[in-house]
Amino acid sequence: MDVSTCLKSLLLAIRQYRNNRSTVNASQLQKHIEDVSGLKCGGVLFSGQVLPSECLSGLMEVAGDPNTSHALTGSIIFLLAQFVSDGEAKEAFHSSYNFTGTLAAIIHCNRTTPEEPLVLQCLNVLQRLTYNVKTLHCASHIHELISFLMQHVQSCNDDIVKACLGLMANLCRHDISVQSHIKSQSNVKAFYRALINLLGHNCLTVVIFVLSILSSLTLNEEVGQKLFNAKNIHQTFQLIFNITVNGDGTLTRNYAVDLLVDLLKNPKIADNLTKYKHLSVCLSEVLGLLHTKDPDTASKVMELLVALCSVPVLRKHVCETVLRPPAARLQPGTRKGVQARGSEPSLALVHWVLSPLDGPEQCYMQALSLLAELFEEAIDSSLCSSAQSFVELLLQEVLVLLQSPDSTEGDHTPHRTSCFLMIVSLCISSKVCSQVVLKTLELMSHLRQQMPEMETSFYRILQDQRMVTPLSLALTSNCREYVQVALRILVEAKHVHKWMVMHACFFFFFSNVGIIDVYEQKLSALACKESRLQDLLEAKALALSQADRLIAQYRCQRAQAEAEARKLASLLKDTERKKEDLQTELNDHLLEVERLKSDSQQLLEHNGRLQAVADQHQELKGTYNQLLSRYDKNEGMLKELQAAHISLTQQAEGLRKTNEGLKLQQERTVAELTEKEQQIKGLKTDVLNKERKITGEQWK
């Protein structure tokens, strides 16, 4: 099944799944994803056509849906992860499909279960996706992703720790907004302590990740100055060089090189590296990696060497190590000679310079740039004589390459040709050098009509004063072909400096070569015209330079202002959101406190009333008991008195006639009894009143 048919089937399955997220549709979609995974369709998927774009957008949408099963999401990520290493696909992931935001959203949805294989898969893909790429700080769930990484660098799972640290190193590197966000977190000190504790980890990859993060966040702060002080930095150098030379994989080596490149931007650290006692040995071991067949490793090593060359003292060290007097050499002139002397780092550089144009562009362009740096250092120094024999070999190889039939093919020819001329112009003048320059200019002259940028490079190179010597040597050559090529180049070059033409003509005239008389008048006219044009060009160049400088300043200021505005807007938004959440929570708490306070007050008041009633009840109960006791006592007495009264009354009736004296006594006794009855009635009345009072209060 061809790629187009597979993509159509995939798009149909995506639409069916979005319309009905059933198990059957999910299984069907996963099957189509696996079919596409088995095809080499990266060029088609990221071609910008409608069908592949819809497929990718649909896959992103399905993967970012929290309701999608882990199995289906994992298969989508596995498919897309195959293209992360491709430059164009990586750019499309960031600019068109927000793959970073999708993966961050998946991690955020599964933040409570970091041990899930899907989380580790997303972290690993994100690490590859964000390497050497600045992530947009406003991308979705980036803040949540950073919080997740800060939290889980202390995980018990080493795979999670390594993935989190690698991703954090990518996000922090050269991204001020991410660095500011991390430093603004409340747990940043605990995060620093966790990183410092990880410096003792038994995995060197983890240590490199930690050093990279700390250098990005703290290099210019007090913590970083303590970590990377003169006492510790030599151990860091040794660690970086050991990992670069003997690292456990390309990934670790890449991060080690990046770390050293970043550290070299600090003048104090760069100065400490110049004093490192093992620098020469380490440089030799690093240069030995140039003999590898892996272009990625070679590219990273050359990136490190270019960074070292940015420091003048280190540049001299690199130049001495590369261009040191070699052992016995074979005669130059063939590619076999280069291969036979592969133990020399300079020859490894030549190998990458002469690599096929269909290979990795970065390798041979970096090799050319590095050679140009080294030759510029070698000129007018004690290394000049050491470099001379190597230059002869290089020029022979370049000449063979330029004369090959396929030297005009490939999109990168203008860049490499320009770099060749830059290197050659730095080399010592010689016959071979002139031949290389002439062949290169002739090649550029043929290609300038087909490639617009080649024409610009062609005229710019002809305006270089270093072209005078090789063109003059060609005009005075005994070879008719060289003379004709040089004259043809001069005639075609309408924008050549006046002094260059005059110098070439003068040199040629006094060498008694009779062909120059034919072109003298035409060249003089061209020179006069060039003089006028050159004045205009210089004025225009000055204006353009000023405009470019102003534009660059404006862009830089605008970028800084936009970054600061985005950071402030993000911080303001977070602050407002947190303020609103806290205000809502505070209001809820206040309402709850007021309600509880009111309930408590009511309960206290009710309890007080009950306690008062209970106290009154106890008091009345005691009084009632006393009165009841007195009442019982008085009632007994009353009964006794009544019995006595009856007895006395009977006696009185019997003795009335005989004892009048007892009558008076009886009357006094009755009076006393009456008085006591009144007291008893009064007591009963008091008891009844108190009982009514208690009953009334209870009723209230």
UniProtKB/TrEMBL annotation:
Highest taxon, organism lineage: Eukaryota
InterPro entries with a match to the protein in the record: ARM-like, ARM-type_fold, CIP2A, CIP2A_N
Pfam families assigned to the protein according to its UniProt record, in alphabetical order: CIP2A_N
Protein name, UniProt field: Cell proliferation regulating inhibitor of protein phosphatase 2A
Keywords, alphabetical: Coiled coil
Key word Methyltransferase present: no
Gene3D superfamilies membership: Leucine-rich Repeat Variant
Coiled coil (residue ranges): 544-599, 624-693
The CIP2A N-terminal domain, residue ranges: 21-405, 430-496
Organism: Cyprinus carpio (Common carp)
